[in-house]
Structure formats: structure tokens, C-alpha cells
């Protein structure tokens, strides 16, 4: 069982004081705040590709590195990272071959229903069926999606205007970055 494996490993990790090499404080030393995708291929690749070590950045992950609402929990995390944890720049980093590419909310709800999820209760509890059906919607272009998320962040009334917000796309096979939005150009 995976939990048992994790707990056995963790006990040895703590006993061996393997954590010592990761010690840092809560403030990002490079003052970077990154919104990226939860894709497992990025777990080690992204930090290596952008030269980050433990403690350098606040990394917020969600499906598709997408931000679609100013009250989204990822936006709250970005604002906390900027205002309370000394972040100074925001990077939205999506990736090629993302699972959110061409994902349709209605298809996702059908899949959830097939796997035993109570879609009917979810739809009844939602503020509107239209919103409920589009909540899982992905995007047609990763470039447009990261630009849209970056624009939403940059225009948030609680984000200081001097904070640069960048949008990039990473190739999960090579780590190559493509700049979609240079936040220095947008803030000057």
C-alpha cells in the first residue's frame, strides 16, 4: 500500500536527518511566485529548468495553471505570497501537452458520473447549471490560457501595479521555455 511505503520512508528520512539539506525559511529567496500546472512531469523538471532550489519560490499548482476568477483560491495564494511572504514577481507557467487542452466540462462530468461521482447533487448545489457545466472546461491554446491568467493577475485590484506578471510555456519533454508575456514590458 502506498501510504505504508510513504510512512516507512518518512520515518527513515526523519531519523537520518535527510531534511537538513532542504532547510530554509518561509520567504522565497528569489522572491518568485509561480502558478503552474499540477502535471507530474513538472515536479522536478520545472525547478531545474528555471534554476530553482528549495526555498527560492512559492509554487502554486492547479489543473492547467489556469486562473479564471479574481476570487479563485490560486489568486488568494498569489496575493498572500506577494503581500505576506515577500514575493515580488509572478510567473504563470503552463506547458505543452497539458491534460486541460481541449477538456470540456460536460465530458468531465460524464466521466465523473461513470466513476461514481454524484453529479446530480453537484449540479443542484451549484449557483447555476451553466457555471457547473463549464467549471471543468480547459483551453484550446496553452499560450492564450497563460496570457489570460497573467492578465487577470496583473489587473487584480489587490496586486501592486509594480509587480511584474510573466506568462511562459514549458515543454515537458525538454524543459525549454517560451515567453508569452514579459511582465517587465507590461509594467513599465
UniProtKB/TrEMBL annotation:
<keyword id="KW-0862">Zinc</keyword>
<dbReference type="Pfam" id="PF00484">
    <property type="entry name" value="Pro_CA"/>
</dbReference>
<comment type="similarity">
    <text>Belongs to the beta-class carbonic anhydrase family.</text>
</comment>
<dbReference type="InterPro" id="IPR001765">
    <property type="entry name" value="Carbonic_anhydrase"/>
</dbReference>
<dbReference type="InterPro" id="IPR036874">
    <property type="entry name" value="Carbonic_anhydrase_sf"/>
</dbReference>
<protein>
    <recommendedName>
        <fullName>carbonic anhydrase</fullName>
        <ecNumber>4.2.1.1</ecNumber>
    </recommendedName>
</protein>
<keyword id="KW-0479">Metal-binding</keyword>
Amino acid at each position: 500500500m502506498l501510504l505504508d511505503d510513504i510512512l516507512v520512508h518518512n520515518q527513515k528520512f526523519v531519523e537520518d536527518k535527510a531534511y537538513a539539506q532542504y532547510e530554509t525559511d518561509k520567504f522565497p529567496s528569489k522572491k518568485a511566485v509561480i502558478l503552474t500546472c499540477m502535471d507530474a512531469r513538472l515536479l522536478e523538471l520545472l525547478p531545474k529548468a528555471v534554476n530553482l532550489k528549495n526555498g527560492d519560490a512559492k509554487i502554486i499548482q492547479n489543473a492547467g495553471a489556469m486562473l479564471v476568477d479574481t476570487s479563485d483560491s490560486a489568486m488568494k495564494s498569489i496575493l498572500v505570497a506577494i503581500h505576506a511572504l515577500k514575493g515580488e514577481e509572478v510567473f504563470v507557467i503552463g506547458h505543452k501537452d497539458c491534460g486541460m487542452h481541449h477538456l470540456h466540462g460536460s465530458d468531465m462530468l460524464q466521466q465523473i458520473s461513470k466513476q461514481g461521482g454524484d453529479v446530480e447533487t453537484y449540479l443542484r448545489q451549484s449557483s447555476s447549471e451553466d457555471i457547473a457545466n463549464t467549471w471543468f472546461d480547459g483551453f484550446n491554446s496553452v499560450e492564450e490560457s497563460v496570457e489570460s491568467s497573467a492578465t487577470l493577475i496583473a489587473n487584480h485590484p489587490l496586486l501592486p501595479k509594480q509587480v511584474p506578471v510573466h506568462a511562459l510555456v514549458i515543454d515537458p519533454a525538454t524543459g525549454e521555455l517560451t515567453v508569452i508575456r514579459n511582465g517587465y514590458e507590461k509594467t513599465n
